[in-house]
Amino acid sequence: MPRACGGRPKTEELSETMKRLSTSPYREILSAWRRFTAAAHADGTVSRKHKELIAVAISVVKGCERCISYHVRSAMGAGATTDEITEAAFVAVIMDGGPALAHMGAVLAAIEAHGEEET
User: Which of 51, 66, 59 is nearest to 18 (CA)?
Assistant: First the structure.
């Protein structure tokens, strides 16, 4: 699993940050963000699975390992296969080249880690 400093999984670190923000004076901003993302990720003309695959690719281009881990897990939860996730990540490599290719390890690690969560 992609790891943060101190060996904690990046998705756990992200979750802890969200918990801290949800009890802070900025909780209303976080709440508005969560409502927006839930609406944007909901099934519509484009399925949630495909939206998550798009998010995986964007996360790779942006180089955000927390985002990669989060969206790989979400894509798997929406029914995406390992091959679909990997192919979506390679689309990012087409668009961003070497910098995106450097993040493929984070994608593969997230697939492994989040695949293990299901067993």
Answer: 66
CATH of the domain at 25: 1.20.1290.10
Whether 4 is covered by a domain: the verdict is no
CB 1 within 8 A of CB 110: yes
Rounded to a whole number of angstroms, the distance between the first and last alpha carbons of the chain is 15
- Nearest Cα to Cα of residue 55 among 104, 94, 89: 89
In the chain, which residues have pLDDT < 50? Answer: 1-7
8 A C-beta contact, residue 111 and residue 86: yes
pTM of the entire predicted model:
0.83
